[in-house]
Amino acid sequence: MKLTILGCYAATPRSFTNPTSQVLEIGNHLFLIDCGEGTQVQLRRNKIKFSKINHIFISHLHGDHFYGLVGLISTFMLLNRQNDLHVYGPKGIKEVILLQLKLSKSWTNYPLYFHELTKKTPEVIFDDERVSIETIPLKHRVYTNGFLFREKPGDRKLLINKAKEYKIDVALYKSLKKGKDVIAEDGKLISNALVTADPPEPKSYAYCSDTIYDPGITSQIKGVTALYHESTFLESESHLAEPTQHSTAKQAARIALEAGVGRLILGHYSTRYDTIDFFKKEAESIFSASELADDGLEIILD
Amino acid sequence: MKLTILGCYAATPRSFTNPTSQVLEIGNHLFLIDCGEGTQVQLRRNKIKFSKINHIFISHLHGDHFYGLVGLISTFMLLNRQNDLHVYGPKGIKEVILLQLKLSKSWTNYPLYFHELTKKTPEVIFDDERVSIETIPLKHRVYTNGFLFREKPGDRKLLINKAKEYKIDVALYKSLKKGKDVIAEDGKLISNALVTADPPEPKSYAYCSDTIYDPGITSQIKGVTALYHESTFLESESHLAEPTQHSTAKQAARIALEAGVGRLILGHYSTRYDTIDFFKKEAESIFSASELADDGLEIILD
Question: For residue A108, what pLDDT band results from cuts at 50, 70 and 90?
Fold first, then answer.
């Protein structure tokens, strides 16, 4: 799993920071998570292939999380995209995108599917042989979901020398990788465990932005490899967190600690702060494996 | 008059170019013309005060000319704007902006007025003591207007030494500036022409983007100080100009020549071109006072 932060700053614009958007790479998938204004330019700058993005997940309909979506959809059209595009987001997202395409007398030349979300409990919204994705209902000023990405266990790792030693036909290697016992060339039954090893531990990533501090989410995200949790404010501005339904760095760290996650990635910093160093310090006082997202940063989740 | 080019490239995004937006400064007015995605960041980078923008003119509802508008309107809200904001643009612009504000449960805390345009003939849409603004109906794939900004003649220039020589009371200087004759302290009638000079010639600016080559506009923009005319293509791609209803640099120059404008500013370059130098060369072969817009460029129109 590789996470690329395209933007991780809160709403008001600055010359050189970007609103929220991330790309999560799992195998051949490139999942785009949120799409603030300017995301398409950030994709270009980070040399991410537009044509490989087939699934876009929008947490909520505040502008700094989705005003870049219509531009990206339009650009896909100009680039003669052929692949299906799936957009997952709150109810209303379809109407607003289609209205803008209609006003510009534009229609996509590729199939565009909207998966509008309305549930207030977790639901699986994507599932294939490699990954499953479910919503994490969050508490914010508007209907909001985080997203939980779980890799599925891969094939068992074939111990090639062992397989040769036990004289197993090459045609059976695929069965071995799938965990099956096989019959060797000499007729003996070979137990799978003798010739394979466990696959790498599946990784998981929880994206939680925007949200008020809500310990109710910890059971769902328990033990994930990495948690991105918004930290719009520092504790010194905690009086602003509750009315705006955002979190502080300390609160994000508490969630990480309670959920026992592998690591915490902070982001969605208010642009009132000139430096983001204090977010890390504040979170580390609660949860040591805390780190800072920043625009353009690539993070390997292992 | 000062023109600041925030963005002057056509639709598809690149790492370091911007879609269409310009700021025209006339006296105390800052008029924003078009508002492609990322305009608010370009305003920041060019150190233009958000609070001084009270009038926004949208030529047409293609994304590269207005996808940045909703973000700017939202940001004005976050910055606690108080002043009225007036948006002039094609019918439909109000619906799409208000739908997005509704979905994000946001309302502006400042008065927001939409002036929706539907006419296919020129109309005056703004007029005060300093400037008048009228639409320039253009031919493009969707309903489109250019905008013609005309300064009004300023006060006459007081020749202060002459006024003293003729012993004119200071209280009468205002009348002199307004072109009136006055009575001097010694009772003599002083003809205005003796103590004032003509004010600077009023400037005018015609913004024409996007449009097919249309000589029909030349009578309306005759003799303007400066014409910004789109030149999406070079003549080598003229076969693309007609179906997409855009112009070539040569066609823009023909319009400038036929209209007898002071200078021609080219822009809205297709991102297919690696360099824009050829646009200038091509236009200059027809109209020598041709120049290139570029992102971040400030142009004094005098």
Answer: confident
Nearest CB neighbour to A63, from listed B38, B71, B99: B71
Nearest by CB to A70, from B13, B67, B103: name it: B67
Is B140 assigned a ligand-binding role in the annotation?
yes
Question: Which ipTM did the prediction report?
Answer: 0.88
Q: How many CA atoms lie within 13 A of B14 on its CB side?
A: 14
- Look at chain B and report how many structural domains it folds into: 2
**Total Cβ atoms within 10 A of residue A81:** 20
Assess whether pLDDT exceeds 90 at residue B106.
Answer: no
B167 and A CB contact within 8 Å: no
Domain match, B172 and B255 both: no
Per-residue pLDDT tens for B69-86?
999 999 999 999 999 999
Token pair in block for residue B93: 């612009």
Residue A13 has pLDDT above 90, yes or no: no
Residues of A marked as binding for Zn(2+)?
Answer: 60, 62, 64-65, 140, 210, 268
Enclosing H/E stretch for A264: strand A263-267
Tokens of B171: 């209280």
Chain A nearest C-alpha distance from B66 (Å): 10
Q: How many CB atoms lie within 10 A of CB B129?
A: 8
B200, B209, B99: which is closest to B146 by C-alpha?
A: B209
**B7 in reach of chain A (CB within 8 A):** no
B22-43 core/surface letters (b: 16 or more CB in 10 A; e: else):
bbbbbeebbbbbbbbbbbbbbb
CA–CA distance, A177 with A132 (Å, rounded to integer): 21
Same-domain pairing of B182 and B67 = no
Considering the domain architecture, whether residues B162 and B228 belong to the same structural domain is answered as no
Is B64 in the active site? Answer: yes
The verdict on whether residue B62 carries a ligand-binding annotation is: yes
Measured in angstroms, the CA of B102 and the nearest CA of chain A are apart by 10
Confidence class for position B107, pLDDT limits 50, 70, 90: confident
Do B47 and B72 lie in one domain? The reply is yes
Give the helix ranges, DSSP H, for chain B. 39-45, 63-66, 69-78, 93-103, 160-165, 173-177, 192-195, 238-244, 249-259, 277-284
pLDDT digits (tens, 9 = 90+) for B179-225: 999 999 999 999 999 999 999 999 999 999 999 999 999 999 999 99
Considering only the beta carbons, identify the residue of B12, B14, B100 that sits closest to A78. B12
How far apart CA B39 and CA B29 sit, in angstroms, is 18
CATH code (residue A74): 3.60.15.10
**Is the same domain home to A204 and A186?**
no
d(CA A206, CA A209) in angstroms, rounded, equals 10
Residues B167 and B31 in one domain: no
Residue A28 and residue A174 in one domain? no
Residue B16 pLDDT > 90, yes or no? Answer: no
Task: Look up the domain containing A8 and give its range.
Answer: 2-154+200-300
Q: What is the pLDDT of residues B213-228, one digit of tens each?
A: 999 999 999 999 999 9
pLDDT at B108 > cutoff 90: no
